[in-house]
Amino acid sequence: MNVAVDAMGGDHAPEMVVQGAVEAVSELGIDIILVGHEKKIAKALNTRPAHGHISFHHCEDVVEMDESPLKALRKKKDASIKVAFDLVKDGHADAVISAGNSGATLAAGVLSLGRMKGIERPAIASIVPTEKGRVILIDAGANVDCRPAQLFQFGVMAQAFACSFLGMTDPKVGLLNIGEEEGKGNEQVRLAHELFERSELNFVGNVEGRDIPMGDVDIVVCDGFVGNVVLKLIEGNVEAMGRVIERDLMSSFFGRVALALARKPINGFKRKLDYEEHGGAPLLGINGVGVICHGSSSAKAIKNAISMAVQYVNNMVLEKMSLQLKASKIG
Amino acid sequence: MNVAVDAMGGDHAPEMVVQGAVEAVSELGIDIILVGHEKKIAKALNTRPAHGHISFHHCEDVVEMDESPLKALRKKKDASIKVAFDLVKDGHADAVISAGNSGATLAAGVLSLGRMKGIERPAIASIVPTEKGRVILIDAGANVDCRPAQLFQFGVMAQAFACSFLGMTDPKVGLLNIGEEEGKGNEQVRLAHELFERSELNFVGNVEGRDIPMGDVDIVVCDGFVGNVVLKLIEGNVEAMGRVIERDLMSSFFGRVALALARKPINGFKRKLDYEEHGGAPLLGINGVGVICHGSSSAKAIKNAISMAVQYVNNMVLEKMSLQLKASKIG
User: Does the CB of A266 have a partner CB in chain B at under 8 Å?
Assistant: First the structure.
């Protein structure tokens, strides 16, 4: 197994990315190709013990976080994220992970590997912790506007991913809307509702914002604008609530005692909601394996994302998804 | 002051609505007209002490929660929410509050009282608690699709509301998007960004989902689909996290002790995030005062919403908003 890691992508690249890659090699026994500016990577790697399973692939360019993905990829032919996906195309690597510009990761994946049969738009599937377990949120930010058929395709891909990667059986699929009743929402969602209802998915109908953290469904489908807002709002909520609770408790003597006693369960709770633990978010719908990491990923988050990519390949998620698309008369 | 209360609207109507109205009369020294089916209201009122400041206005119909607002209002000429707004139109009442179908409340408000000059679409402004205080989320669910000019109008109305009702000075306005950089998001948001930038509002640019609970801005503008998802997601997050923390703490001895010691600050925290405390959400952009309550409103939430309507009238928010719209060359 050989994973191409975009060493230049992310707020803490290349240092944290390289460190995560080193940890992944030790833990998972795989090979890694660090794609990016060799000198910068070597500098980041120098402080760590040498490792036979890590190789370089030099390239000059990187797509910055604030660049327009398509424009940047057109201009920078040698961008690390594009080169990483080309390594998969040419059979030198089995998967790509990147903490860089997620729009560029999506675009580079499509340009190099193409879309799966029947999929108009690949999407980002994010695994979000809930009260009862976890829910797959799709699309978490790849496509700002979506046609109803595309939303339906997201649901089918997420269903295949849920079964083949997370081991779910007949996962419940909900469509994110602003009311549970049929006929609610905008035209896009109303038409998507019809497509889901006619399908063989375990479609439970419309779900609302409050149903996501409750965890009564396994898959929540929405466009990438809404999905991205949802994902970042959950992140912010957890952080803000944590700080407010802590501040409130610290303001009283009994509160401080309580906080000292409850440190272990509270840390366990934080861990449960920590995106670092869940690694990255897979890009569903391209002809290959790509995992997108949070821009501010730590070494641990990078390592977990690499681990996700490895499991993705080992579980043959791509092949199973392709079969599912055919069965749903999409692929 | 005379407030028309839609006694038939909400999951616990008319009981909870009537009880909230009775409490509001005692506390606020105002007059209330209960609009709805007289027999049903009288039954709910019977168990409570008689009150000279409460009167009835009988009507036969009610728009149910799952009805299409416009269709229902066309069919049910005598619907309580429409009759309530007509009481304002005819000078018998100063404001309307309803916990019923929010789409119907909006539509009835527009039909009876009309839109403010320059406003294409009225919007729901929801006051959301944050780490640092509170933020006004507009639109919280009235309009599923919005043109850029409409998003800009929401911002101007919310600014006037923030100053004249919440006493804010030069509130910071953010546009909800999926990235902070200019040029991010869909076309609707990109064009709205230009309108805000050219305006005299204190526009801080794009904000992301995570910025809402942090509370670094005072006003967050988005379309009603996204706003409604955000509002309900925050509600669900608070509930789910509260339960998870409690469950985790209860599973250990020290956790149970901690929970007992921390009961007071935890309850204080819950109260801060409780929508009941904040009353309802005002409908901005109609020629009159309308406050929308949560469908599952308790008596306390109804009372607080009535109190909000009273302050709204007393502070002459409508008049000040109208001046602000003129100053922004909208009205």
Answer: yes
